Amino acid sequence: MRVTSSFRSLFALITTTAVVFVPTAAHAAPPSDVKPVRVVILVDESGSLSGQDVSRERAAAQLIALSELSPRSQVAVVGFGSSNGPGQSAVDIVCPLTGVETAQDRESLSRCVEKLRRREAHEGNDTDHAAALEQALDIMNEPDDQQRAKIVFLLTDGVLDVARSPQYGADPRDRNANARRQIAGTLGDAREGRVQIWPLGFGSADQAGLKAFADGGWREPCGTLESARPRARVVAGSADVERSLLEAFAYARCAGIGESVTDSLDAGATVDLHVTIPAVATDGSIVVVKRDRRIRVGYFDPEGRPVPKQGEQHGSTFQGAGESGPVESLRIRNPVPGQWRIRLESPPGVARQDVSATVVWQGALRASISLSNPRPRPGEQVDVRLRLQTRSGTISDPAELKGLRFSAGLSGEGVPPLPIALGDTGEGPDRERGDGEFSGRVTVPPGATGALSFLGRVTGTGMAGDARVYETRIAGPADRVRAQVRLARATVEPGGEVAGAVSVTSDAGPARLALRLLDAPATVRLSAGELQAPAGHSEHAFTLHVAAGAAGGRVSGTVQVLGPDGQLVADGFVDVDVRPPTPWWQRALQALVIVLAVVAVALPFLLARRRARRRAADPSDLTLHLFERPGEPYVSRLQAPLGEGPEFTFEVANGLLVRTYGTGYAVRRGQGRTVLVRDPQGRELDPLVPGRPIALPNGLWLGVDDGRARGAGDGGDAGPPVYGSPEPSQSRTHRPMPGDDLL
User: Fold this and answer.
1) d(CA 4, CA 235)
2) Stretch 128-139: mean pLDDT, rounded?
């Protein structure tokens, strides 16, 4: 099999990456802080600078000092010019190496940066890059018990010029060449000492010379992440220095950076700027360039809540600095993800000016790796699962993981390096699409003889690449127990339980196995510490108990099964979402919403049915006719009233039909075409049907004409029927008669 150089580099990184080990496998330790850095900022003080250039350089240096994410980092600022005569020094340590743990530390850095200046001729105002770089490496070589990453930023507007500096040789014509040879040697030391160099030039800066600085130092601070490789930047003018240096700073420390948002602020006015902190960020700094120290700045989280500049609120820790200077920042540990609002208020009398805000962020993330078969035999398949964890739990939203790369590989005794393709597609070995668990499958080569190493790695913008190694061995003759942990993702309230199971196959008789829970908070515990498995296949249930006082949020960890010899037999990820119990008033409100929703859906249907029933019972299309004998013209007519309900009443007086209100005969619709009539004593008469009159007790006859029935036929009006006529052809046209009631 052909193995690419990039994959070899992946395995080479194992020796340079901090890895946490347990007896046979490595799991993610709970993430703590972002990795600290040691930063030296070299600032050109040569005479070619303008006053505005120096001001921009100061602001740029303050940006780095105030936006650093780790409280364990250190920053030094060194101004440089040249040494052309007695009493002159090419370098000026403006800010000695200083920690940034407290707000006072950062304020001190912000103030000492103000000492950067444009040199005069008697101070040595040429450009000695060689001395500046040498001083930076001297600072980097100071004792360091934190193993901080080393970053040098070089700000300059010119090219190397030491022709008037006698320490580089007696002949002025040779001095620049001699200085360049010294720079080459210093760059070799920087590369060996893993010191990054990020040059930033403006104006007439030498692009080729600056590129040599970037290429000469350490080139892989964030593994294979291309954007993090040092490179030279040359901007059109000093006005672009701030953004360019802030970008270089973010890339150098493997951090992410948002867009810089700029607006104009008038005297006595207020302006809001907005920046976004992503969900994968565990630490962030909002950096505000306000120019005038009199401008006041306030910060609001994505929920619209004002946040303090010092202290804690809603699980986040805040530390502001630079409030009394032209640049200030708010460092946030565990920031609320989303869009933050920065409000700037200018007092009267302050000139109109541009203000800007930028967020720099990083994820203190850790990878967790799990195997479906921790002790495989040659030729057996192993499913590898990798996921990412923050301080507050695992990340499962695919949108939050966008831009990160999950990779894995296998190596070991008798095993050449094998890449393992991972995916979160829900296909093959992956258990669920889009759950944040990236899975792949590999077959252990037949030639495997002993130790195996499964490497999982996560890289991406905004985080230092994290690698986890799962160390195990090929199963031997004594390995007669196999197991599998089944524990689905669940949502519970504090005090609840999550059910899981362990499938065990023991080929060597009964076996006692141990269960343990790793990397989980103290508020979660296992129901049992061991299980007794009989010979053959067996299933064993267990539960995870969530304490009644557990805080809400995602809970992660790993359930492990250990064999009789203490070796890892199986493990499985824990993924539980703990949600506080719903308050009674909220449950009542939810029930009310459900009732209202049901009513909203059912009400139109019920109203439509009611209208249909009322329409079906509506007698307004009925016309009653009174006859002396069937087959003769009617002597009186009464049309049913409109809109008075399904029933109307009448009486027969002096041979006429007379409308009444609640007394006499009652008429209503029946089934089909029938019309029901009730006499004044409440007795039901024979049903009326159009064309067939019925006899009334007084010897007269009552007929009915239904206009609705006539219209439902062929669509035309055939006129009133002739009662008693057996055939439609015998109908006669009605002549209006005295006594017709048209009500």
Assistant:
1) 37
2) 97
For 469-492, give one letter per residue: b (16+ CB within 10 A) or e.
bbbbbbbeeebbbbbbbebebbeb
**Rounded distance between C-alpha atoms, residue 291 and residue 56, angstroms:** 10
Strand stretches in 209-249, DSSP E: 233-235
31, 39, 43, 101: which is closest to 250 by C-alpha?
39
Cβ contacts of residue 507 below 8 Å, gap of 6+? 480, 481, 535
Alpha-carbon 214 to chain mean position: 35
pLDDT at residue 345 tops 90: yes
Spell out where 579-664 has E strands.
622-627, 636-639, 647-653, 656-660
Q: CB atoms < 10 A from the CB of 226, how many?
A: 8
**13-65 residue pLDDT tens:** 333 333 333 334 455 444 557 889 999 999 999 988 888 888 888 888 888 88
* pLDDT tens track for 382-405: 999 998 877 766 777 788 788 788
Q: Residue 424: its pLDDT value, please?
A: 92
Amino acid at 122: H
From residue 262, give the alpha-carbon distance in Å to each of 243, 284, 342, 641: 11, 19, 11, 76
| Percentage of the chain modeled with pLDDT above 70 | 90
DSSP 536-561: EEEEEEEEEEEPTTPPSEEEEEEEEE
What separation in angstroms does the CA of 476 have from each of 448, 480, 508? 12, 8, 13
Nearest to 691 by CA among 717, 727, 667: 727
CA torsion sign for 671, 673, 678, 683 is negative
| pLDDT of 364 above 80 | no
Using alpha carbons, select from 512, 510, 504, 550 the residue that is nearest to residue 529: 512
> What domains lie within the chain, and their CATH numbers?
32-254 (3.40.50.410), 477-581 (2.60.40.10), 618-741 (2.60.200)
Which sign, positive or negative, has the C-alpha torsion 171, 172, 173, 174?
Answer: positive
Would you say residue 422 has pLDDT above 70? yes
Across 396-535, where does the E strand assignment appear?
A: 404-412, 415-420, 438-443, 451-460, 463-473, 481-486, 490-492, 497-506, 511-518, 524-526, 530-533
